[in-house]
Amino acid sequence: MKRSEINKLLEEACDFFSSGHFQLPPFAFWTPEKWKITGPEANEIRDNELGWDVTDYGLDKFYQFGLLLFTIRNGNHARQDAYPKGYAEKIMMVREAQVTPYHFHWNKREDIINRGGGNLVIDLYHADEHDKLSDREFSVSVDGLRRAVAPGDRVILSPGESICLEPYVYHTFYGEKGGGSVMVGEVSDVNDDRADNCFYEQLPRFPEIVEDEEPRYYLCTEYPPAFEQKS
Fold it and tell me: Each residue of 161-195: pLDDT tens digit?
């Protein structure tokens, strides 16, 4: 992805979340210059990869296969002594027909919440013992109501609705055509995008970036080390 494209997407996302009355934390708007003089007091943000996250899954077709999200809070399995939180929260902008490819999590249980905009379409399978698509039936919880699911079944969430996805449940999601972008929340166990994503097709979680202009904001994988004040 080009940095200029990412900058444009972040600007659009700021407007989208604001128009939906979802306020991001102040560090969402810290510039690279601000980060370069920020010390270890922000290590929770750095170490737990809070903040902006934009991916095209290495396919170079962001509007067809992509996702923009902001991680608001997160724990850290590897640093539980410093970061004992057992939960995470994200907010996402999912566009019409913009697909997040099939994947599941080995460990993370997550609630996916339609917080406003259009409808969110979610297609579901259970994984088999080889991490492939299973032909087994299972059930999910939609706002506390159990619902039987056959392989490949579709759940459509209108604004205000949510679904709980257990580990080993394959899911793909996208905004329903004709409804506009969807503001999607996620409340989950600790999020580990480097070790707890199993994509049905092998895809990179983070994109390669072509630096054709300066970044507007850093992505969550780009923060510089803590600034150390010289005595």
Answer: 999 999 999 999 999 999 999 999 999 999 999 99
Strand ranges (DSSP E) for 40-181? 51-55, 67-73, 87-94, 100-104, 110-117, 120-126, 138-142, 145-149, 154-157, 162-165, 169-175
Look up tokens 């097709």; give the residue: 201
CA distance 209 to 172: 24
Q: Quote the CA–CA distance of 66 and 205 in Å, as a whole number.
A: 10
Give the CATH number of the domain where residue 127 resides. 2.60.120.10
Gap between the Cα atoms of 139 and 207, Å rounded: 33
Containing structural domain, residue 147: 3-199
**Digit-coded pLDDT (tens) for 109-120:** 999 999 999 999
Eight-state DSSP code of residue 99 = B
